[in-house]
Write a sequence for this structure.
């Protein structure tokens, strides 16, 4: 058993494999020495790598980063510099992207927005529509009430009809809240054109962290049928198909590779759609999840019913909020090596709900020791709160 007079976090030379290499651990320790804890470290090179991987796997697909996954402005800037487009779902998200284009000449900026922003929240406050109208972005809708709102308050926007498609087996289900039933889609498109609006395309979302690739295949078929019927009944072209997000991240070894998915998507898109259709995708999680690590500190320790319990300075009201809202578990790991014991890890707030895990496998830890979790880039710090007076983790950028 470790005695707690040891120096915290010795450079583990004891037995037992640890997840991060020693070089990486030392780098994190240096950042902790400089910035304190908890820190949320964003590796921009990893984001660039993910973006390039997606491009290589699906070269005909234009990437619209879903800003809600992680709206840190520096992430948006890194993706902007790579030529990414953006999916925004609120005015504040729109403004984060705007920061990068505000100095463009107005005409150029107008073209950029038309080309590279989709406002992909099907429900938009009237004030937002009024603010957006001058920029003429693409906006999604999925019902006739929204259509009336758009006609009155943002008649210059281009429209994309969001379809309800199967979300079977996806970790985060979206089809209960969004998407027009395929049976009413063509009528909505006809209605939009008859109101003088322009339907540029269709979109769908198969659910986030989608590991059931059949969802995408079915969604493509549903979309192809609707496009065929809508074009023949309106005499207008549907130019865009937005295949949404959902691209899965390897949180653990069991997740099927996005390569397999890309192969299927490329083949089905080629089979089902006209060669000149523009294909958009809105990956969120895929671009950022594996780019971020959280490092926190053990601030308290107890034995409860004989089990070691560690209290750390980040929890489910903070960076681990993804465990609640995103249904992902983030294993807590130690910098220290040693024999593993089943342990509980709690966050810092005065709520028992603030429980990160009751079954971490951790060596005997001391107060002041560091712990970390990987793959924390998506839907984590984005939903962090100030509950109980504890602020979100400090963000630190590397390889910017
Ligand atoms: C959340 C969201 C995304 C991103 O989904 P991921 O599963 O993170 O890729 C894309 N499009 C829309 C409309 C969304 O709401």
């Amino acid at each position: 058993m470790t005695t707690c007079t040891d120096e915290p976090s010795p450079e583990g030379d004891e037995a037992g494999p640890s997840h991060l290499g020693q070089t990486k651990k030392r780098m994190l320790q240096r950042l902790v020495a400089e910035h304190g804890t908890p820190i949320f470290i964003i590796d921009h090179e990893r984001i660039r790598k993910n973006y390039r991987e997606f491009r290589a796997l699906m070269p005909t697909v234009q990437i619209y980063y879903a800003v809600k996954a992680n709206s840190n402005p520096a992430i948006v800037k890194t993706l902007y510099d790579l030529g990414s487009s953006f999916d925004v779902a609120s005015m504040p998200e729109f403004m984060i992207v705007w920061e990068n284009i505000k100095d463009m000449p107005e005409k150029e900026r107008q073209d950029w927005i038309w080309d590279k922003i989709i406002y992909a929240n099907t429900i938009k406050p009237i004030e937002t529509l009024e603010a957006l109208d001058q920029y003429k972005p693409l906006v999604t809708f999925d019902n006739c009430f929204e259509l009336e709102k758009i006609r009155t308050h943002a008649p210059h926007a281009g429209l994309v009809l969001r379809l309800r498609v199967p979300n079977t087996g996806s970790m985060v289900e979206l089809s209960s809240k969004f998407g027009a039933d395929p049976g009413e889609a063509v009528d909505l498109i006809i209605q939009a054109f008859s109101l003088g609006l322009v339907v540029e395309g269709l979109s769908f979302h198969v659910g986030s962290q989608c590991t059931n690739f059949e969802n995408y295949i079915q969604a493509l078929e549903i979309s192809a049928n609707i496009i065929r019927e809508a074009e023949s009944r309106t005499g207008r072209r549907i130019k865009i198909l937005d295949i949404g997000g959902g691209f899965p991240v390897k949180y653990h070894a069991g997740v099927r590779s996005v390569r397999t998915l890309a192969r299927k998507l490329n083949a089905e898109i080629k089979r089902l759609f006209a060669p000149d259709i523009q294909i958009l995708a809105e990956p969120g999680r895929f671009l950022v999840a594996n780019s971020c690590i959280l490092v926190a500190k053990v601030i308290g320790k107890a034995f409860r019913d004989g089990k070691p319990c560690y209290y750390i300075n980040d929890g489910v009201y903070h960076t681990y909020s993804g465990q609640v809202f995103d249904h992902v578990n983030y294993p807590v790991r130690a910098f220290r090596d040693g024999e593993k014991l089943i342990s509980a890890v709690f966050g810092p707030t005065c709520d028992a709900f603030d429980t990160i895990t009751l079954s971490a496998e951790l060596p005997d830890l001391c107060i002041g020791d560091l712990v970390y979790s990987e793959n924390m880039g998506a839907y984590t710090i984005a939903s962090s709160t100030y509950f109980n007076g504890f602020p979100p983790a400090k963000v630190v950028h590397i390889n910017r």
Observations:
- The radius of gyration is 23 Å.
- Residues 22-42+289-398 form a domain with the Lyase, Ornithine Decarboxylase; Chain A, domain 1 fold (CATH 2.40.37.10).
- The CA atoms of residues 113 and 137 lie 6 Å apart.
- Residues 6-18 have pLDDT under 50 and may be disordered.
